[in-house]
Amino acid sequence: MGATLAVLLGACAAGPTAPTAPSSSPPPADLVHVSLGDSYATGYRPADGGAPAGSRRGGFADLVAERSGLRLINLACSGVTSAQLREEPGCTPAARALDAPDPAGRTQLDAAVQTLREHRGRVGLVTLVIGGNDLAPCARAADPLGCASRAVADVRTNLAAVLPVLRDAAGDAPIVGLTYPDVFLGAWVSPEFTDGQSLARLSVPLFQNFFNTALKSEYEKVGAEFVDVTATTGGYAPLTEVTADPTYGSVPAAVARVCALTYFCRYTDVHPTAEGHEVIASAVLAATG
């Protein structure tokens, strides 16, 4: 993942050459993982199993940093849209990741640029997951496809402004952009939706051919890796492939998978379960390995 080059300092003197110290690379702990984005990046989970709601350890960013031997600097802010990432200053303590630095009135993008420049040559990884809060309202919109079209256009515009700035600040450090599980598949079994199966059917081509295609295109423009979390979590499987779910009975396998990896089917909450964060972390590590 790249490290600063050691600079060998030598002295010239008459007579025998004095031994020089061997070159060395900084230990992994000197390299940082800068995590950016929304509540997926902060590790937010709803109240579950007696634990309070909020950003807790064990999010994918924590797992990736720990397993890569990197020090995590998590600048993400729960609830932000792609526009807010670049335009809205500050992040309330409740919306930050655990142990996250105070953005001190800066936008997340500005805080990221400063952090990346301060650690230039010691950035092991940058991850960004954004766009979910742009798209989420479309689940309940009267015209989901029209809403999604506008949301994807907004995300693309904002990424086109954000990513070159991050690339410039990060130098040649690896940047990984992520998408999301297709949580709308959970509408298939959720009583919150009057026609959840129609929404679930619409969501598959929306993620596969529209939302994720747009994200991938923008990340690739700056030489970033794109991790298709929708694919990793089984979101593209045909809805004719059925499985027996212990809670919901006979349902499409893709629906059962999103029910296991997110809280959408239980609470209509889009966030990953602990298992979901494990799957996302594994996908990021595979992309950077």
Mean pLDDT over the full residue set? 90
The main β sheet shows up as:
5 strands, parallel
Task: Assign the structural class, choosing from mainly alpha, mainly beta, alpha/beta, alpha+beta, or little secondary structure.
Answer: alpha/beta
Content of β-strand? 5-15%
Strand order of the largest sheet: 4-1-5-6-7
Which consecutive residue ranges, at least 5 long each, have pLDDT under 50?
1-28
Secondary structure tally: strands: 9
**What is the approximate shape?**
globular
Which properties best describe this structure?
two-stranded antiparallel ribbon, single chain, 11 helices, alpha/beta, 289 residues, 41% helix, disordered N terminus, 5-stranded parallel sheet
Report a brief summary of the structure.
With 289 residues, this protein is an alpha/beta fold.
Structural account:
The protein has 289 residues and is α/β, with parallel strands linked by helices. Helix content is 41%, strand content 12%. The chain has helices at residues 39-42, 60-68, 82-87, 108-118, 132-135, 144-170, 196-221, 229-232, 253-261, 264-267, 274-288; strands spanning 32-37, 44-45, 54-55, 71-74, 123-129, 175-178, 225-227, 242-245, 249-252. The protein has a five-stranded parallel beta sheet, with helices on both faces. The protein has a two-stranded antiparallel ribbon with strand order 2-3. Strands 8-9 form a two-stranded antiparallel ribbon. A hairpin with a 3-residue loop joins strand 8 and strand 9. Helix 4 (108-118) packs parallel to helix 6. The longest helix is centred in the middle third of the chain and has 27 residues, at 144-170.
